[in-house]
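Minutes, project check-in
Item: structure for the 579-residue chain
Input as provided by the requester:
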Amino acid sequence: MHEKNRSLRVTAISFPFLSSLPLQPPPSLFSSAHVCHRSVTAGVWQIQGNSLQLQTPRVEPLGAELLASVASAGPGPGHTLALDTLTADRTYSSGERSHCDPQGPFSDVAHWRTVMGSMSKSPNILLIHSDQHRYDCLGVNGHPFIETANLDRLAAEGMNFTHAFTPIPLCTPARNCLLHGQWSFQHGNIMNADSEAPAEPPVGLPSFSRQLRDQDYYLAYVGKWHVSTTRGPDAYGFCEFPSHDAYDQWRESQGCPPAEYANGWFGETVSGRTPEQTHLAWCADQTIDYLRKGADHEGGFFIRWDPPEPHLPNIVPEPYASMYPPETIPPWPNFDDPLDGKPIVQRQQLRTWKIDDWTWEDWAPIVGRYLGEISLMDAQIGRVLAALEELGLVDNTLVIYTTDHGDECGSHGMIDKHFVMYDELVRVPLIARWPGRIEPGSRCDSFVSHEIDLATTFCEVAGAPVPETFQGQSLIPLMGGGRNDRQDILSAYHGNQFGLFSQRMVRDRRWKYVWNATAEDELYDLDSDPHELTNRTGDPACAGELTRLRHRLIDWMRQTNDPLCNEWIVTQLSEDLSI
């Protein structure tokens, strides 16, 4: 019997063998590739009693052959299954009839396979990893007027992690934490390339990208590399990536004027360039092209876009440059921080940048351009998400948005980063969407060390072995509504263009302790002082908390083999000798 091309929506199928799960189904059921005389494409199937209920069907024309297998233990109650496309454009052989007792619109079924995430092929991953985006500069995270409709919608369709923190608030080391799943002092890259100690991780150190490549993933990279000056993305398993000067060549072909940097690091409104001609828009175009290529790959894909934005200088075209007029932007609650009782290096930071006498009138235009560039980035992210939908890839794609670290951007009167562990710098946005795995509109307030945890997560999503060198916890249980056992979060810093400056931070729900190896320590009560204005290290009422957090820091340094965990430092911290 030969059927004409047609598509049918399947609602339920009954299998007698399900009553004996989780035992392996009879081998005869899966011994050969049967042919069905109707067609349906994979959906999410939930085991309910002796039947499989299709929760989110996707229907396509006939034509593809079902080739899959069942895990040795077979699926069990509470698991989900995926049904690959069944075919009907060939003759049905009654001699190949299976043991199924169909209750749906077809009478024979080919192979099934158990898959993580109930996907018909390896899950795809789209990572958008920006540079220097503050947690509080998103609509979904409480900013009163910033326009980030696309990232807000991503959170509404997925999960917003409210307590994600960077393992190190510095660009290159943070990116290596993500690639290698380790703390900065473990992989060895503790500073950016243009600094006193620009060491790179050793060749051959395991990376999540190499693990995914070994799983036949198609990997593409767009945007800011900032991982190594001697090794490109191909050394880490990425199949494709634009050359470093590709955008400049494209700009020249478009007749765009040279980039403007008249105001240095403080940014400016750019003339002679439309939003469509920005680096953000160009990178979005490249990302969309790689999505199309990834859609044709038989395995899964991992596509990573690292916008260099909104890292300063914010050179922004209209209408985004004037989207947030300076007179409408109120000062940050901690803008007027006198920095009393805090490490002198913080006041030195202001003086080095020549901003120690700035008023909010000086700062507001800079903050406005920072917010404007975030809105421009959000618009381009929206284009990428729309392309994902147009390609029919949404259901099988985990989308992650995050950043490497935040930005002071006027908080505490400071610019950029360095020497500090304030929440404006170490707390980061982290949003995940994965249909069928993440409840839309959900929030997770568990502590997350985002770069390190994502490395482990990507391996588990792809079904790849997690290297023993990885230090993170998978976010998959959290995405399913669970919680982790972390009671606090930690971060490290080692200095950069102003030289070596060792810091370690411990932060729990109420307290933050910052150990400054060569400066005064810091202790903040986040309940009474959420903007971190008053250093409580000298307050006798806080002595017990200070001792507790110092001992917690020693424990963490020992667990991670922190090279600073020597007898001198342990004595200093354990005996409260640190100033």
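Outcome recorded: The chain has a mean pLDDT of 83.
No further action items on this chain.
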